[in-house]
Amino acid sequence: MSRAEEITERLAAALDRIEGAVTAAEARRDAAGEIGDIDEGAAAERVAAAEAERARLAGELEALQSEHVTLRETTDAVSERLDAAIGELRTVLEG
Predict the structure, then answer these.
(1) Cβ distance 61 to 8 under 8 Å?
(2) With helix as H, strand as E and coil as C, how does the chain read?
(3) Residue 8, class by beta-carbon neighbours within 10 Å (0-12 exposed, 13-18 middle, 19+ buried)?
(4) How far apart are CA 74 and CA 95, in angstroms?
(5) pTM to 2 decimal places
(6) Residues 10 and 57: beta-carbon distance below 8 Å
(7) Residue-by-residue pLDDT tens, the chain, 95 positions
(8) How many domains does the chain have?
């Protein structure tokens, strides 16, 4: 698994945790029948932490995608140069 795929999976997991926290809070509210029974401070802290993690992971993903493009360009350039060198060697050996 590439680093970009790993970051993407971590980002998806963070979003799933946010959705899970919201769903759990809604379920507790519905079960209690009152919004006052929910520890809103703790839920808000968890959501804020998950959002911060999501932002961090999104930044890391963007950096990795940029690095991937750079590496891909470098790989393509090296491949072209190797192909040209191999072609020249074949010409020398055959001629």
Answers:
(1) yes
(2) CCHHHHHHHHHHHHHHHHHHHHHHHHHHHHHHCCHHHCCHHHHHHHHHHHHHHHHHHHHHHHHHHHHHHHHHHHHHHHHHHHHHHHHHHHHHHHC
(3) middle
(4) 32
(5) 0.50
(6) yes
(7) 777 778 888 888 888 888 888 888 888 777 766 555 557 788 888 889 999 999 999 999 999 999 999 999 999 999 999 999 999 999 999 97
(8) 1
Looking at residue 29, its amino acid is R
Domain range enclosing 37:
3-94
The residue assigned the tokens 């929910």 is 38
33: left (phi over 0), alpha (psi -120 to 50) or beta: left
